[in-house]
Amino acid sequence: MVLDQSIDMVRVNARTTDAFDIFNIRHYAGSNPYLPTAAAAFDFALVKENPPRSLDVYLEVIGDRYPHLLDETYDSYAHLFARTVAEVSKLEMDLHLTQWSVKVDEARAKVAVQSLHGRTSRAIVYCVWDWFEAITRDRRFWIEDQIEVLQRFFRDSVYGGPTVYALLKTAYELDIPTFYLWDERLMQYGYGRKQVRGIATTFDHDSHIDSDFTTGKDDCKEFLHTLGFPIPKGSIVYTVGEALAAAKQIGYPVAVKPVVGHKGIGVTADVKDADDLELAFDRAIEAVPDDQPIRIIVEQSIAGKDYRLLCVNGRFVAATERRPASVVGDDEATISELIDRENRTAARVDTPTSPLGKIQCDEAMERYLDEQGLTMASVLEKDRIVYLRKVANLSAGGLSIDATRQIHPDNIILAQDIAQHFRLTCLGIDVISLDLTESWKDGSFGIIEINAAPGINMHLKPAIGESVDVPAHILKTFFETGKAARIPTISFNHVSVAELQEIVDHILLQHPHWVIGAVCHDGVFVNRSEKSLHPDYNTNVQNLLRNPRLDLLIAEYREEVLDRDGMFYYGSNVVVLDHPTETEMMLARDIFDDSTVVIWQKDTVSVNQNGLIEQYKLSENEPFSRVYLKEIATIL
């Protein structure tokens, strides 16, 4: 039945003027009765007292914002509402949220839309609801303003960093199971003994000693010098007097930066005289972390372009040129107005997937403008390009240009030689070069610093040039395929503690050194050892999959858990169903091509394996376990 007319029910969340009612909103962290993904699910109904306008009216307004929705057909208001929520959920930055479903009964429709962050998804549902109500009353709804608010919600979430989201999306595309460990503030990729944990481009496989070493720019410079690589001449100083003396000895121009730092904070390049040096020294001191001593590097300033070379697992994968933020004059607008105009372009929406961040205005920028004889109020002549900073800091609005295919082979070898000295998954090498197509041995070339946790969005989404799929390079370092990230999983709809222990013993007879995690409504076990049972069922499942020694998982998922919380994971190698309900049949829905499904209904057992179905009846005293233990043996 299609829900296309008002129903006689008590209003739940709707206001007195609303035509629609949304209620029972919940967020499923994983596979659930409505979708095989994490989802926001809610009930949708029409309010009897306030009939809506024609469905075509809503589609026309929404289609003005999303024209491709006009090419689709909708059976009801619920279907259009679900499709709109799914589209808004992408937040106009191509988030990988595309799945949705509508299940209709006589009283209401159950809508589910693929989700990632519960708070953001809930806000999206309410935003679309407000939009529908505005259409009902023929009022203007500023959806573009709401999108900006929703983008900030997502940006502030644990998934909202550009590097974190890029890895998360790639893991989804490669079918690598991924989830966030809230207590540890880490992402986990893969299950059990197959897992890798980390945040951004730092992983538990990395050497923390090597990672810490890269933060000390002075020691790194000495190390690179011993390898025979080009580094700028410089000294570590502690006072402004020592800085002035060092600059005099090295010769202007110089660069000034804190020994410990990141993201170009506190760095001043091309310092030309003593007055500039004193200001640069103060900026470097301000950037020193509170728990670190005052140590400042004064070094030769090398002429050339700023490049980031990226290595993954010791191999070169990408190079990006970084240019400082700039504006182009038009004979009319001030620099301040040009910056504001540039910040409102689509490329600078400053989301996890945008190629450019917003241009940041601060004292350093105004000081550099002053060096050029300009202020924020200056009007630039037509086509004049003015750079706003000396340092090409992308987080302050700088421009990224892909240079991967331009790099000279000698420079690739240099990057790899450096990276292979560190037990780090990712290493960023910052260099200055007049021309990256020329060998470092022949021209002006200097290594500025190395970074143990480099960002990857500049390579994946450069402002100019081709994308390099760095997230895939990183994840394929750990997992050749999505299957390689998983351990065998056996799912039941009903299983007792005694049956769990029988299954564990059966498996340990064949694999005595395995670590098996098992969970049911009444207990949690690692092999035969009983563990604490958490009141939240999926927390028990997560804790088992978090165990880095786990070889196999056995889990029970009853209807009440599936309805309330959904499943923590997607996909089972063996599914065993004992007289399942319609909801519990979702366990058989979420399987792999080579999975085995065993279903017992009344006195008939069916076994579905590799597309072949075998059916037979159990004899009077034959236990069901005899059937599924035989099938479990096939995956071991």
From TrEMBL:
<feature type="domain" description="ATP-grasp">
    <location>
        <begin position="221"/>
        <end position="479"/>
    </location>
</feature>
<dbReference type="GO" id="GO:0046872">
    <property type="term" value="F:metal ion binding"/>
</dbReference>
<keyword id="KW-0067">ATP-binding</keyword>
<dbReference type="InterPro" id="IPR011761">
    <property type="entry name" value="ATP-grasp"/>
</dbReference>
<keyword id="KW-0547">Nucleotide-binding</keyword>
<dbReference type="GO" id="GO:0005737">
    <property type="term" value="C:cytoplasm"/>
</dbReference>
<dbReference type="GO" id="GO:0009432">
    <property type="term" value="P:SOS response"/>
</dbReference>
<dbReference type="InterPro" id="IPR013815">
    <property type="entry name" value="ATP_grasp_subdomain_1"/>
</dbReference>
<dbReference type="GO" id="GO:0018169">
    <property type="term" value="F:ribosomal S6-glutamic acid ligase activity"/>
</dbReference>
<dbReference type="GO" id="GO:0005524">
    <property type="term" value="F:ATP binding"/>
</dbReference>
<protein>
    <submittedName>
        <fullName>Cyanophycin synthetase</fullName>
    </submittedName>
</protein>
<dbReference type="Pfam" id="PF13549">
    <property type="entry name" value="ATP-grasp_5"/>
</dbReference>
